[in-house]
Write a structure and sequence with these properties.
Rossmann fold, three-stranded parallel beta sheet, Tyrosyl-Transfer RNA Synthetase, mainly alpha, single chain, binds tryptophan
Length: 330
């Protein structure tokens, strides 16, 4: 039996090069070796204000980006979280196994709630729903970035507590899935900060749908230093970031890149990096635009429908066990 993998992303627009190199690309590499479920976390997305028209567009776009990046709908279960109602239901049950105190310690909540007024209960409760996502499917591994580690930890805590309260091994304890060489891509404008979709300065972020000209412009403008020497060093975060990007794409080591580019200077080096990035993005964009034609609406719908049905088979069983354990009459 293959090990179970589960992960999700929130539908909040076009993914970045950072999301691709740091996450999605790894998912594509593992899709043959594990039983993978990848979903669009639409329920999570409404923990902050959303415009319904935009949200609907972004959910569909997220599915298209999954497939365009190379997730094979025949090999993976791809679905929308809201299509499997067990997520919300298990979320409720787990709310009753989670302490206010432990949720109050979540750094993502603290960060996000600082940035806005009128904080919703849903935002506070976000990690519990995420725990439900994971525990419904007996996930062995959950590929998550650094920023979601704490949420994975709390999912383990909740699972453990639930199992011990009801004295039954209902939930499997999930582990973070760590892949080697996961690239951590930084902002092009402030290379000590992570590249983010929501950066106000759009020049700081490369998006999966940026055309060649845009990629070149953004990389040319990327903040570096004045040394004009291509060397991998923490003291040169801008160059280090560009080398990371290039290395992640070309699979060359830093040493090889230093050797290859030692006579280039930053201008030429940036052109090479930009070209490498666009060569990766071109086929993704081609596939994405193909999928976005209305002729493919039915195809996309059928993938999500099939995905939700497959996911639900597992989810349904698990929720029944849970209901039974807590004393509901099933
Ligand atoms: N919180 C994750 C993020 O923003 C998305 C997510 C929701 C998720 N549920 C999950 C990731 C379950 C992994 C497993 O990146």
């Amino acid at each position: 039996m293959k090990k179970q993998i589960l992960s999700g992303i929130q539908p909040s627009g076009i993914l970045t090069l950072g999301n691709y190199l740091g996450a999605l690309r790894n998912w594509i590499k593992i899709q043959n070796d594990y039983d993978c479920k990848f979903f669009v976390a639409d329920l999570h997305s409404i923990t902050v204000d959303q415009n319904p028209i935009e949200l609907r567009k972004n959910i569909k776009s997220a599915i298209m980006q999954y497939i365009a990046c190379g997730l094979d709908p025949e090999k993976n279960t791809i679905f929308m979280q809201s299509h499997v109602h067990e997520h919300a239901e298990l979320g409720w049950i787990l709310n009753c196994s989670t302490y206010m105190g432990e949720l109050s310690r979540m750094t993502q909540f603290k960060d996000k709630s600082k940035k806005q007024a009128n904080i919703k209960v849903g935002l506070f409760d976000y990690p519990v729903l995420m725990a439900a996502d994971i525990l419904l499917y007996d996930a062995d591994y959950v590929p998550v970035g650094e920023d979601q580690r704490q949420h994975l930890e709390i999912a383990r805590d909740i699972a453990q507590r639930f199992n011990s309260t009801y004295n039954k091994e209902i939930f499997k304890l999930p582990e973070a899935f760590i892949t080697e060489n996961t690239a951590r891509i930084m902002s092009l404008q402030e290379p000590t900060k992570k590249m983010s979709k929501s950066d106000e300065n759009k020049e700081a972020t490369i998006f999966l749908l940026d055309d060649r000209e845009t990629v070149l412009r953004k990389i040319k403008k990327a903040v570096t230093d004045s040394e004009n020497i291509i060397k991998y060093s923490d003291e040169k975060p801008g160059i280090k970031n560009l080398m990371n990007i290039y290395s992640a794409i070309s699979e060359k080591t830093y040493k090889q890149i230093e050797e290859e580019c030692k006579d280039l200077g930053y201008g030429k080096f940036k052109q090479i990096v930009a070209c490498a990035v666009s060569d990766v993005l071109d086929p993704i964009q081609k596939k994405y635009y193909e999928l976005s034609s209305s002729e493919n609406d039915e195809y996309l719908k059928s993938i999500c429908k099939k995905g939700a049905e497959t996911a639900q088979k597992t989810a349904e069983k698990k929720l029944k066990e849970v209901y039974d354990a807590v004393g509901f009459i099933v």
